[in-house]
Amino acid sequence: MDRRRVLKSLLVLLGSALSVSLIYPLVRYLAPPSGAEQGGKVTIKKSEVEVGSSKDIVVRNIPAIVINTPEKGFIALSKVCTHLGCLVQYEKSKNRLLCPCHGGVYNLEGTVISGPPPKPLQKFAVKVEGDSVVIG
Ligand code: FES
Questions:
Q1: Ligand 1, closest atom to CA 100?
Q2: Distance between CA 79 and CA 118 in Å, rounded?
Q3: Fewer CB within 10 Å of terminal CB in the chain, N or C?
Q4: How close is the Cα of 63 to the center of ligand 1, in Å?
């Protein structure tokens, strides 16, 4: 194999790698989040959220979180803070949701515990059907 062919092959390989590295994030961004959404409802498998853990989903274009609590089972809340719209984060160890922007704290019912949020987080209906959890 001569030098020209090797160089050509390397350029093709490099071009392919570059294309994949640009296209893959775009496809991931445009693809719907995991969980099948039909008619505004999102269905996930129960096994996707172990007891004490959570999963981020999107319900009717609203970022949301499903938490499998040991006490009450599955709950689903909007992640959009009612203060200025930052996304809250689940703090498993403290059994609460914390807004990183201004320190708003919500309990797992979505009720404001402390901080500036003026009202509770939006709750979504949750229905367990066999091995699935239907949210929305
Ligand atoms: S945006 Fe959440 S506390 Fe301000």
A1: 2
A2: 15
A3: N
A4: 15
Q: How confident is the model at residue 38 (pLDDT cuts 50, 70, 90)?
A: low
Collapse the DSSP code of 16 into the 3-class scheme (helix H, G, I; strand E, B; otherwise coil) and give the result: helix
Is the pLDDT at 33 greater than 60, yes or no?
Answer: no
Read off the pTM.
0.73
* Candidate from 81, 112, 113 with most ligand 1 atoms within 8 A of CB, to mutate: 81
Greater confidence (67 vs 30) lies with 67
Residues linked to residue 76 through DSSP beta bridges, in sequence order: 66, 124
Contact between residue 132 and residue 43 where contact means Cβ atoms under 8 Å apart: yes
Task: For ligand 1, say whether the CB of 99 is within 6 Å of any of its atoms.
Answer: yes
pLDDT level of residue 98 (50, 70, 90 thresholds): very high
Measured in angstroms, how far is the CA atom of residue 88 from the centroid of ligand 1? Answer: 8
Other Cβ atoms less than 10 A from the Cβ of 6: the count is 10
pLDDT attached to residue 37: 57
